[in-house]
Structures are given as structure tokens and as C-alpha cells.
Amino acid sequence: MASQVLIVYFSRSGNTARMAELVAEGVRQGGAESAVKAVAEAKISDLAEAQGIILGSPTYYGSMAAEIKCFIDASVKLHGQLAGKVGGAFTSSGGIAGGNETTVLDMLKALLIHGMVIPGNCNGDHYGPVAVGAPDQRAADQCRLLGKMVGELAVKLHG
């Protein structure tokens, strides 16, 4: 069985949903299978089955949407069971200084507390892809790169 990377996102305007699809393209380029789920459709048990987990949220007041935070809070049931899985995060926002990096870091902190492995990006959006409004070409490339890095690492670590 190939490594699977689960991409869970919340999107009100469609911008974060588009980013999720771009991340999934990158996951497949990295040699893993991708599953894209809106947070309302995702189950906590989905996290245990995946070898990689990427979270996406719009930026609201410098942090993630409540829907993603509730999903993360519910994942406490799996505490200790996600250790060693590969993770990442991405966000979209309405402005360049809207708290994009703090949003990504908030999601990454939760994945790190679960014991997950998070690849950094030394040549782009260091913590994870950020789009201002709809993803432009730069953001699309960063989304694909995040997916590819997580996909490749999931394959290396989990076969």
C-alpha cells in the first residue's frame, strides 16, 4: 500500500479549498496518494490511517478558523498515535499582514505536539504556503512544493 497523505481544510470563499487541491497535486508528484477532505467531512479516525497530514485554514484574526481548531481539539483522542507521521499546514488570508505565518505556526504547533515530523522550506514560504486571496502562481507553486515534500518524506518514512 502506498503512503497516503490526508489534507484537511476549511474554506468559506473557496481560496483555501483551491490551495488544498494544489497541495494534493504536489503529494502525488512526491509519490504518495492524496485524500482531500473538507473538515466537515473528515473524521478523527482518518488521521490515524494516514501517513501524512496537512491542515489548511483561512486566517481569521491571526489564527486558524474555529472549524479547524475544533478538529485539532478532538484529535486529543489520538494523542501519541500520530507520532512519526509527516505534517504540514497552509493558509489563505485577506491581506499580506493578516497573521498568515502565525496561522500556519498555530496549526504546526498542534502537529508537533502530536509528535509529527514537519519539513521546513528554506527557499520559499518557510513554515507553509500562504496565499493572499485566491492563490496566485507563487502560492500555487508553494502549495505543490509543500505537498511534494510531505509526500516524498511520507514515502521515505513509511514506504
Question: Can you tell me about this structure?
Answer:
- The chain is α/β, with parallel strands linked by helices.
- About 40% of the residues lie in helices and about 20% in strands.
- The protein is built from 5 helices and 5 strands, in the order E-H-E-H-E-H-E-H-E-H.
- It has helices at about 15-30, 45-50, 65-75, 100-115, 135-159, and strands spanning about 5-10, 35-40, 50-60, 85-95, 130.
- A 5-stranded parallel beta sheet has the order 2-1-3-4-5, with helices on both faces.
- Strand 4 (about 85-95), helix 4 and strand 5 (about 130) form a beta-alpha-beta unit.
- Helix 1 crosses helix 5.
- The protein is globular.
- It starts with a strand and ends with a helix.
Briefly characterize the structure:
42% of the residues lie in helices and 19% in strands. The protein is of the alpha/beta class and 159 residues long.
Number of DSSP-assigned strands: 5
**Taking Cα atoms only, what radius of gyration do you get, to the nearest Å?**
14 Å
Q: Give the rounded overall mean pLDDT.
A: 97
- Quote the beta fraction: 15-25%
What would the principal axes of the Cα set say about the shape? Answer: globular
Low-confidence runs:
none
**Helix segment count?**
5
Helix and strand composition category: alpha/beta
Helix content: 40-55%
Order of helices and strands: EHEHEHEHEH
Major sheet strand order: 2-1-3-4-5
**What is the CA–CA distance across the termini?**
8 Å
Largest sheet: 5 strands, parallel
